[in-house]
Amino acid sequence: MKRFLNALFLTLAVACFALPAYAQDNADDGDESKSSGVVRRTTKKKKAAAKQPGVTPRMEEFYIHKDISDADMEWMRVIYRSLDLSKVQNAPLYYPEEPIDNQENLFRIIMRLLTNDQIAAYEYLDGREIFTDQYRIKVKDMLERFHIPFANAKGSTNKHPKFKIEESDVPANEVLSYYILERWEFDRVSNQMHRRVEALCPVLHRSGDFGGEAVRYPMFWVKFDALRPTLSQQYIFTTDDNNFAHYTYDDFFNLSMYDGEIYKTRNLRNLSMMQMFPDPDELKRAQDSIDYRLNHYADGLWVPTRDELAKEAKAKKGKKKKGTEVASRDGEEPDEEVAEGEEAEEKSSERRSSSSKRGKKNKAPKVKQPKVKNNSANSSATRSVRRRK
Predict the structure, then answer these.
(1) How many domains does the chain contain in total?
(2) Domain around 181
């Protein structure tokens, strides 16, 4: 019994000395929050990881794109597009110009995250984009380069600088277009084409002191995956017909709701589309051809079935018939292709009907020719002498 009491006493003594040290260590690591009687501790490392307000480390891990392995990738192409914000389809990226009811346009969100040291920006290298620390820009230098007034924010350090910009000083009304970097990848494991936006670049449109045509100034590249946790929480209006915002900026890019013109593709000579095709008509044809090949790349990998071929032929026939009916109703001549197709079809049907009639028709009876009698007057034979008197 004495041994048991001694062991119990020693255990209690050790626990009394260890508990204060354990509590002190946990107090230094993070904060305690009690919910339903459960004590949860958040370490400094986890708190530092969640830089963006309302964004948890798990959200950041979820939105990070996992690259397809080179062994599984069958085909890949990099496309550069220019989004003109004056187009109705791209207007959700520009409006509202000023923050209204917690609604911000895309450029204000990017500048807010950038000045708070929550995302990184990279140099615009005109077709040679490299997203490494070597080409990461300093926010202060960028603000000075584009003449954007700023001040040091609270909590700014040399290692993690933060800046404060007044709402009226943010040049959101001058960012009238964006460059986006698209990556098209075909995964042979899933046999699917994947299209994703890899980076965004806001473009300033500024006129000189004497007016004239505005000059474009690409500012910097921002990786889209770094923006996704914040963009997925910002709902936007995509049409005037529905005033309920049920799409986010993240949906806007992932669902290809934008209207972008191809201005460059990755090539060996690092030439733009305008340099490769100076003629406007040739440029338009080349852009349409690239778009068509990207959207129909997977269609050429499979042999169509009989049902698909029959369905396609039926659709073409119905389309020709509909075109003929519309043209005849409007009093116009039908298209040459439609007319030729119908003429050939009519001729074939006539041949089939004539051949069937010929087979069913009975042969006509032969007409007997009347026998011609030999008249003596017309005959050239001499009469018999015996009958003469």
Answers:
(1) 1
(2) 58-300
Q: What is the pLDDT of residues 82-97, one digit of tens each?
A: 999 999 999 999 999 9
pLDDT of residue 389: 44
- Distance in angstroms (rounded) separating the CA atoms of residues 183 and 253: 13
Tokens 């609270």 belong to residue: 154
Distance CA 54, CA 112 (A): 14
**CA angle, 140 then 145 then 150, to 5°:** 45
DSSP string, 170-197: S-GGGEEEEEEEEEEEEETTTTEEEEEE
Q: What residue ranges in 6-162 does DSSP mark as E strands?
A: 30-35, 38-43, 73-84, 121-122, 151-152
Identify whether 169 is part of a domain: yes
pTM over 0.70: no
Our separate counts of H helices and E strands in the chain read 11, 13
Between CA 108 and CA 39 the distance in angstroms is 38
218 occurs within a structural domain: yes
Instruction: Give the pLDDT confidence score for residue 49 in this predicted structure.
Output: 44
Q: Is residue 318 part of a domain?
A: no
More confident residue, 180 or 72: 180
With CA atoms as reference, report the closest residue to 264 among 290, 244, 285. 290
Evaluate the omega torsion of the peptide bond into residue 96 and state whether it is cis, within 30 degrees of 0: yes
Assigned domain for 263 exists: yes
The per-residue pLDDT for range 333-350, each reduced to its tens digit, is: 555 554 555 555 565 556
